[in-house]
Amino acid sequence: MINCSVCQTENDQYSTICKKCGGFLQNRVPNLDLFDVLWKIIENPRNAFRMIMLAEHKNYAVFLYTLSGIAIMFAEFWHFKFGDRVENILLIFFLAILIGIPLGIALCPIASSIHWGLSKILGNKASFRNSLGITSYSLTPIVISLLFVLPVELLTFGMYFFTFNPPPITIKPISYILLIGLDIALIIWAWVLLVIGTKVGNQISLWKSILISSLVYGFLLFGLMAGGEFTLKMF
Ligand SMILES: [Zn+2]
Question: What CA–CA distance (Å, rounded) separates 182 from 205?
């Protein structure tokens, strides 16, 4: 809640003008600067999500989803041991980008809508634009995984990162466990950011935010697994 300094009326936390007298409450953020927000997400996620809520345009939302789509495709190729089906790493690389970009763009409205729908059921402040901002910027750790962890995985294991024969864990066990552990930690961090973003953005309780975030992840994980399984049957 934010109180009007002129008439003392209580206004919504993200209002820019007073609903009663029209007095000035706070500045609207016209645009989001990508690196500024990403850094704030790492440093102080609550403040970062507040800034995202006040932003007129949820800049870079589709871009963050696109990069995450590419990360998801690499994860799918890893999970389904795609390396046993194709001969070279360049093809995996090419396919991950080729399929990952449209996948990420498609996931943007899908995941935002699921988040919006659940937030609407469990809260009342929800809007599609807010869900778009919350879900996209919560993907920051996934983007970090793509840009910083994946290159190390590819340089360390090459093609064998995606094979079952031989399993990559037998080649360099410690590196493998560390890298996969790091990826798991980054995914958990993304989920935690979604919880924080949902709580701050939709102004609802922690438990409702945990429930919404878990359901969003559950739906997406199920969809991506089922989609991967279905697509591989066609190969
Ligand atoms: Zn007022």
Answer: 29
